[in-house]
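Study this pair:
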Amino acid sequence: MFAFPTAHSSRFHQDSSRRRELREGPKDRSMTIQSISSLSPSELARQLRDQGLNLGIGPFVTRIQSTIPSVVRGIRLLYAGYPIEKDSTFADFHVHLAPPRGLRRWFRPQVLFFFDGHVPFKPLPLAQAYPFFEWGLNWCVAQYANQYLILHAAVIEKGGHAVIMPGPPGSGKSTLCAGLVAGGWRLLSDELALISPQDGRLTPMPRPVSLKNESIRKFAPGVTIGPESADTTKGTVAHMKVPDESMARVDEHATAAWVVYARYDAGAPARLERRSKAQTLLHIVRNAFNCSLLGERGFQTAADLIDTCDCYDFTYSDLDQAVGVFDTLLDEGLLPIS
């Protein structure tokens, strides 16, 4: 399953009764006053330091505060085109990244992630503050956005057809997702598939794509990648900026056509094999963040999804070859079977 930072308080288990249901659907863009790129570096730092700012990310608004330079720089670089909502807009999540008090501010400095004024995770080294911000946002959505069935999966779309790519950490899912997005596919999400129980459609939540270790250097100079953070539990990580084309279509939902389990295998040719729908449904139900919480509605949403999708296992090593295989989805209307 998805690897969150280490939590140390049971009060943060999924519990929809603790928090009102988050809103679903696109925000009223009349409430948007500007984007991150419209602020000067000093103005962005001031807002994040003082009252915080409401950042629109797909269907959610997150109120963010931090004085940590790497967090400020990361938001400025990787969220440049994201909307800033008015202060009067309801924020789904309130997050604050700050150093702990006492000696840890100076000796082997650390960073804390605050959610609604509480600390759900153990501190991490200060040098990992920006990825901590990204991991913390994943946790917020996975814990509380229970108006969706939430899968740990990347979601991409092209030509009106979406691909859901579930996969555990280290499987190569994010690298493949980044390669496809760099090759012209629309990014809906790198980590969390948000599926509506009402109509089965996928809600976009495009955020920077997490890259790890050697995969960071696989992309062309035209792709914007943020600073690297070393020695995390996942190794060295960096994040790829969402293309403008994906951001421009953030309010466009999508319908899934394929569920593809991707796995990187060094030296292996690109290979697709048909996967049992029953096996896929079992895996989806077991590994969704909140299927048990949603009960019958969650199971039925998963069953309807698998019923309307073709399911495959995909092994690859060469990213360009893998992207070519996925483009065949559109050229032939189906995946070529090996």
